[in-house]
Amino acid sequence: MYLNNIFKLGALSAALALAGCGGDININTGSEEVVTVPSTPTQSAQELAYSGFATQNTSLSVDGKEVWTLSGTLVPSTESATLGSGDTGGQDANKIVLGNDVVWELDGAVIAGGDKENSIELEVRAGTKIIGGSDSYLVVSRDSTINAEGSETQPIVFTSKESALGQEGQAGQWGGLVLLGNAPVNSCPDLTACDAAFEVGNHNYGGDDTEDSSGTLKYIRVEFGGFKINDTQEMNGVSFAAVGSGTVVDHLQVHLNNDDGVEFWGGNVSISNVVLTENFDDSLDWTNGWQGSAQHVYIRQADNGSNRGIEADSNSDANAEPQSLPVLANVTIDVANGANSGGDAAEGILFRKGTGAHTYNMLVKGDVDSGECLEINDDNTVLSAEGAQLTMNNSLIDCVEPFKNAKADEAEGRSLSLDVEAWFLAQEGNLTGAADLTDYMPNSASVALTAGAENLSNVDARLEDAPYIGAFDGENDWTTGWTTGIHDSDSTEPQALPVLTSCPVGTTAETVVAGIYKDTNVNLVCTLEGNVTSNVTLLAGQNVMYKIDGGAVVVGGDNSDSATLGIQAGATLFATDNSYIAVSRGSKIMAQGSADYPIEMTSEQDVLMGAEGARGQWGGLVLLGNGLTNKCTDANECDVAFEVGDFPYGGNDNSDSSGQVSYVVVKYAGFKVNDTQEMNGISFAAVGSGTQVDHIQVHANGDDGVEFWGGAVNLKYVYLTHNFDDSLDWTNGWQGKAQFVHITHEDGSANRGIEGDSHKGTGDTPMSKPTISNITIEPGADIENASGDKGEGILLRVATAASLNNLLVQGRKGAEATTESGECLELDGTYAELVDNVNSNELTISHAVIDCNEPFKYSSDNTATTDAIDVETWFTAQSGNSTAAVTITDGIPAVTETQLIGAGKDMSSEDSFFESTDYIGAFDGQTDWREGWTYSPK
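The chain above was modelled as a monomer; its predicted structure follows.
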């Protein structure tokens, strides 16, 4: 009997334990009775938390999580609270929490709360993913809020169902996020009774509460949205409709949206740390009286896929109040090339329809095929600009097509005009010129780092102090960790160049005979010749080359008929024997290569099957600027004739811009006209500091590698190989800067690594005084080239001044002239002003190593003359200099070479152009900045 009772109790316990499986359970104990146990199904934590306002999509799983579907209008609940613990959300009265333990699906229009009734506080936990289908979007009604606070490591992601399921994310796959507020909007004549209808779904917005709050958005990513209903109704990534200043928006990205990235209809909401990438229409759009602020905004457009970076309106009715009058600061806009599929060209900023705005530290960078970067349009906006409701200060425009003017047009109802360039430059701190960026980050020499407006918080309390132009300070990248489409593509293979089927406008196609070129892929050759008086862009393609023919190809007229020659990354140009490129004063070249796809300029022989490249087979590249040169007694009336072609150069503007030359390799140029007229690889004639020059190589030129006649252009990452005469030559008042220069010579076919001059006339100004750091020179052997010049290191003469720092000269070594270099450092004191510069410390060398058999040459053939300088004594008396023996391989020292590594001077503390270094020479022993883009001499 005792054992039977034990059995009965055990069976009952087992039955109770199984009751959670569902259904009643009958237990026969084998004797007196049958026990019936009713079953109560056990719900999961998610079912308990979410089933009151959502339904589980049992056919779908994303990221290994359940998918719960939201649909219709979310309203308060009178049931008991279902809020879970940990990552699990739930509902408590009017508060709904979307936990990150599941993935949330939007089914159609999901609306948080009714319009000013049944209000909802929608909370979204960090790390939550919300997905939408083709007709889905999320709306936060007036008086409801969304509190979505992600983090750098756990952003909240709104994305498409396709992307969530591992398919390709594309623009327009779902809708977007819509916030509706009670703040003012100028489309309502009476703000106390304002019910403006949102353009999709007719949801109401607007009111008279400037401080209204629609909640918080922090570390939010919205991607692949913007479905289109019709030609006038499309969804933005995030829509702020009359949203008030009580709303917090910080760290927001909208990526690949099919309409605008973010758009504001009135309201006072402010945004900061915003990333808008590859959006189809306008990245940042406002209208109807937005008076909020935006700071630290990065906009990157898609080539052939975007319209404007900023499109700014107020109202077609000039009397509509409030006027759009936001405050913007620290915005970087990377303007794309081409036009989107709607036919809209990629452009920078358009101010129109009477908008006002106060903008500071704006940076707009256009590409070779970008549209205008700054435009003002219509009478009401002209009045805003002239009346100081529309202002720009401490901003930088770096564009091929920088400005578009407001013009009177009777047919369009416009009677006022505005010279936008003059308006821009008349305001405090504004600049046009090279931004000097790597991707979106300013390099250490960029003017953007030092030219920004200071004390912004005093200008407007909503702004932070950020005294630099653009969205980034050059060191801190606030986009890392939470964004998409920026950093996750850094390690991918470069996209292949396209196959072109026709030549660009401005060039003519030539018949290509099979087998004529070494590159058998080439079946399209486009010729550029004559005077280029309208913008031409040489498009890169894997099957195309560009022929420079007919002598001088001259870009623009002399400070008239200005034009821009754009050259895309990866383009190859070759020139016939008597041809070269000259960029006139007032015109530009935008040769924007890349490490993966450098631009190559070479000779016809170098590309023809059966021929070989050699020195002097074509001319080279000539840039003519409006900078200062001591060849002119009056800088305001300066027309110096260039030594080949008599093109004029010179002026009074050392900040002038001739465009950009980046990742460009020039080979086999430098033809000789006569004994005094020869072409350099790249000639900088009075070129200003607004020109960006970096990552250039000149190889096997028939005369100098690069030469400067005055001006103030700066250079970085310069590789000069096997050039015939002087590799780096300056004269007539060059006052620029250079860092990271490597010079190598071919024995018997070179002269000096550096030849530095200024002027012969007493007192000519400006005096040449460049500042150079981190240079390695490997001069050739002391045997004559074809002109009778021997291989030497540095000659400073003819009244030049200079500051040379972190310099390494290592000559060939041997027992006789045929196996060793000539003198490695010489000063020619023939002209008294050079001696004066030495004595006054206007000519200095510091932290330098001379490693040569013949390290120095006295400054006069007769050491007893009064103009003599003991070069060795002068050199060794200065800081950090030595004649130590060092070991380098192809210019690069070992990291253990203590005579060089750690022995340098940090020039960045003296001039922000220079990158911080602690080593002597062009290389740090670890990184070879030539790798991938340069030509390696055989």
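Confidence is low (pLDDT under 50) at residues 1-25.
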